[in-house]
Each structure stands twice: as C-alpha cells, then as structure tokens.
Design a protein that fits this description.
Length: 547
C-alpha cells in the first residue's frame, strides 16, 4: 500500500496547529505515529498487564465505547432531568443519531483502541522478545482492538513498529482488515491455553475467547467488507459453517449454558463466562440508572440511564409492572421471563453471604434493588415505599415526558423511564471489578444464527428454544431473523453487542422513539465519523460517507 512520508506529516501538523485555536483539535500522544527510536520493549509482560488495564477501563466505563454501542440503540437512553445529564446534549444526540464530528464519545474510542493495538504490536515486535504466552495474548488483544475500530469506524490505521516513526500508518479496510484480524486470531488460538470453564481465571483470555471473537468476525465479515463498498453484502455459507465449528470447539472446552441468569453477573465462577475484565468498575452499570434514593450504597444512584418501553416489551410479562413476590429470592408474579427480572417489595434478610453486611437493620446491603427491568413503585430495605426528592412515590414510568406531560428527552422529572439492573448492588456494593465481555450464550446464539444463514450442524429453532426454556420463556414455533435479533436483545442487553447486532440484521437505522425523523433510514450512521485530527494527521484515512 502507498505510504506518505514526512513532508505530508509536516503539512498535517501545520493544518492541525492552524485549526487548533478555533476548533480545539489536537493530536493526542496516543496517535500511532508518535514514537521515536523504538527498539523493543524491555518488559513485555508489564506492557501486557498495562494493555489489559487499559482495555478493562475502556470496557468498564459508561461513556465512549459503551455509550456508542448501547446508547445509540433502542436499549438505553439518557434523558435530561432538570440540570442533570444535560451535558450539552451529549447523551441525547447519541440516541437520536444526531452526533457530529466533535463528540467526545466518538473521538476517544478511536484514539484509545488505536493506542491499544499499537501497544500490542510493540509487544509482538521481534525486538521485544515476548514469551510465547505473552505473544499469544497480545495477538488476541490486538485483534480485539482492531475489530472494535473496524466495527465502529470501518477503517483501521496500522503502524508497522519496524518502520520509521515518521511513516504515516497505512489504513486497512474491508477484506484487508478482516484478513489481518483473522491472522492474529489464528495465532492466538494456536498459542493460548484452553482455560477451563468455571475456573474463575477468565480475566485473561484463552482459546475460547479467541474462537468466539473469530466467530464474531466471520459472522460480520459481509458487513465489514461492504460498508465502504469494497465487496458484496452477501453471506458466505463457508464462513457460517466455520462459526458453527468454532462454537462447537468452545463447547468442547466445557463452556455451556447455565441457569440462574442474574447470578451470571456475580463475581463467582460459572460455566458461561468466557472473558471478563477485572479492572472495570461494575458501579457504572449499577448507579447510572438508579434513583438518588434507591440505595445508600455508593452515596446513592445517579438517576440517568433508562430504557425504551418498546425494548422492555420484547420480554414476556405484564407491560405495566414487573414484581417479585417479596424479595430477590422469591418468585416472579407478573408473568415475566427470568431475564426481565423483577422489583422486590422488601430487602433480603442478612445471611452473612460474601460482600454483604448487617449494618442495615438486618437486611443485606442493596437487596431492595431489583434485577433486570425496574418499573413501578420501588421499595426500601424494610419494605417502606420509596419517594423521590420532592416527596412523590418513587415509581419508574414507561415513558419520558417533560413538565407539561409531552414526550421529550429534556426537562424530565426524576421518575421517568424504566431502569436496567444487570449487576445488582447486593453483590459487593457495585464495586467488584468483574465486568463480563464474553459469554457462552452469545456463542450459542451465534451458532443458531449461522445455521439460519445456511450452515449445517443443528436446528436454529431448537437452539434458541434451549436457551429460552432455561430462561423461563415460552418456546417459539419457528425462528426468523427478526426473532433471532430479538432473542439476542433479550439475552445480551447492556453487554455492548446491540449496535453490532442491529447493523448485521439491518435494523440500526430504523425508527425508534426519539430518534430524529431525518436520521431514520440514514445508512451513513452505521459507521461513526473519523475524528478530524486523525484525518489531518494521516492522509491515508478518508472521512466516512455522510460526514
């Protein structure tokens, strides 16, 4: 591929400096060409630990990568409540698909994941002499980083660490990017250990994680190769067959579906978890949706993130309430499937379980907070109905309305919107560093999808119903693409796969509540814009269509 040398780089710097004062554009030191005299790493293991920490923080946050994968879908949105969560329209623009070129949640992921892949490349540089186990993990983490960039932006700048630091990175798109990522994953699969399911050691990646990511790449290959017009958008059945084979290999290592849906998000080992990050704070997944008065843990909730009623209605159960009979240990009474969770009307008596205390009148910390979808009246630990800060009953509603009762994402009160709770504060108060990235149920549903798209190896409807039966949902008579997308939504909500899934099934540009009418059907939104400083610094990058 053609390379542009220092004279182009100098022009790019001049352009950046000329624009900086009026647009606040700047070159971050994470940019892949800023590295002088690299001769290898002295301690590749420490660099690998740093890479895991960086990725853990990026996955565990509620902004940036998480926000553009989830808040830009029908799963979550963040209304402005009085003066809270306004942030110059930051959250609303994501949900409404009205983002521009200078949104921080779009700029930072591009910088961060490119920095990740550069560090992985430095570990893999022969001059670093990384041990084989370190190199295998670096191959995976580079593939994961490049996959993320390709999925979000469609273009992956790549810096060859053996070239001069003045050489502008080449850019991979489409088939070239997919082939590079797959080569890294094949190296990872060959070199990584087969980490035993349920061992609790899944905070480092093994063969199962590499196989799942490879299956994910193959499942999306036709999308990646068509977004910038580089190939047709037709599915390759051979790719789908390989997806089935990869999932079967994961199962052969002992990974399997497991009952007890919300227990999967505790820190105790289970047979479903394939990879979790232990440097991400689960508090981001807990407190961002809870009301200020929902719990005393962590100083209370942040009262922001909510979900659309139309997404809640994908689940079985009463559309207007979602209750447990008494506490978190009791039966659901509103006809809901297990994954929809429920709201308890009292806390759980203290039982000396790990991560709990008896400092709350004999109840476990946080056990009054429900699981899944929180709608209707919320209760204190002792069963007292909670109130908002104005003294109104703390009842979470289906809709989002302003002070005049009109549908709106601004001027909302404290009680609008159904809240989502996948990680419960009862389990370590929300500060256990255990955010799940990959689960076997995702692989299981990918296998069903691959079969639906032409592969052999089972029956898609039977596979989906195996999962639905385990989750307490009514089996389906047959499974269409739409059914499969819905099932992935029900199983994997708030696990950062929704945007990717909706694009693959052609649903990301459809209308949903509060999305701008002018953006409905706008295929340009399937990719985010390349940040302007990066375009100026690297002439090999081209702005994505529509921006």
């Amino acid at each position: 591929m053609k390379r542009f040398e220092l004279k182009f780089l100098s022009l790019a710097f001049l352009a950046v400096f000329g624009l900086y004062s009026c647009t606040d554009l700047k070159i971050e030191e994470t940019d892949s060409f800023i590295s002088e005299g690299f001769q290898g790493l002295e301690d590749p293991q420490s660099a690998l630990d740093q890479l895991y920490n960086q990725i853990g923080g990026q996955i565990g946050g509620q902004e940036n990568t998480y926000a553009i994968n989830v808040v830009t879908t029908d799963v979550q949105l963040v209304p402005t409540r009085g003066a809270d969560w306004g942030d110059n329209g930051r959250w609303r623009k994501l949900h409404q698909h009205e983002w521009g070129l200078e949104e921080i949640d779009i700029i930072r992921p591009f910088d961060e994941w490119n920095a990740n892949q550069l560090l992985a490349s430095q570990i893999l540089d022969t001059r670093s002499a990384a041990p084989s186990d370190v190199a295998a993990q670096a191959h995976f983490l580079r593939a994961w980083s490049m996959y993320t960039i390709l999925d979000l932006y469609g273009q992956v700048p790549f810096r060859d660490t053996e070239l001069s630091s003045t050489t502008v990175p080449e850019v991979f798109t489409g088939a070239a990017a997919v082939d590079f990522i797959l080569a890294d994953l094949d190296a990872a699969i060959a070199g990584l250990p087969a980490i035993a399911a349920g061992s609790g050691e899944q905070n480092r990646v093994g063969k199962a994680a590499a196989r799942l990511l490879k299956a994910k790449v193959l499942l999306n290959r036709h999308i990646f190769e068509s977004q910038l017009g580089e190939a047709s958008s037709s599915v390759n059945v051979a790719d789908m067959q390989e997806v089935v084979n990869l999932v079967d290999a994961i199962a052969a290592d002992g990974y399997a579906l497991e009952s007890g849906y919300f227990e999967l998000f505790e820190s105790s080992p289970d047979s479903e978890t394939i990879w979790f990050v232990d440097s991400g704070n689960t508090g981001n997944r807990i407190f961002n949706g809870l009301h200020y008065n929902s719990t005393g843990l962590g100083g209370g909730g942040w009262n922001g993130f909510s979900t659309l009623a139309e997404f809640y209605d994908l689940f079985e159960g009463d559309p207007n309430q979602n209750r447990y009979a008494t506490d978190l240990e009791s039966a659901q009474i509103d006809g809901q499937e297990e994954r929809r969770g429920g709201v308890p009307n009292i806390g759980v008596p203290f039982t000396n379980r790990p991560g709990s205390s008896d400092d709350n009148g004999g109840f476990e910390d946080g056990s009054n907070v429900g699981n899944g979808f929180l709608i209707g009246q919320q209760y204190a630990l002792d069963g007292t109905p909670l109130e908002d800060r104005q003294g109104n009953p703390l009842e979470f509603s289906r809709g989002f309305v302003d002070g005049n009762g009109a549908p709106s994402l601004i001027n909302n009160g404290e009680r609008t919107g159904i809240r989502l709770m996948k990680y419960n504060p009862r389990n370590g108060g929300g500060f256990t560093n255990h955010v799940i990235v990959m689960r076997y149920s995702d692989a299981h549903l990918m296998k069903a999808e691959a079969i639906l798209r032409g592969a052999s190896g089972g029956d898609a409807t039977a596979l989906v119903n195996e999962l639905r039966t385990l989750r307490g949902a009514t089996p389906l008579g047959s499974v269409s693409e739409s059914d499969l997308l819905d099932e992935r939504g029900r199983e994997l909500y708030c696990e950062a796969w929704r945007r990717n899934d909706m694009i693959r099934f052609g649903e990301y540009t459809r209308q949903w509540e509060f999305k701008s009418d002018t953006e409905t059907g706008n295929a340009a939104r399937n990719l985010f814009p390349i940040p302007l400083p990066q375009l100026l610094a690297n002439p090999n990058l081209v702005q994505n269509p529509g921006y």
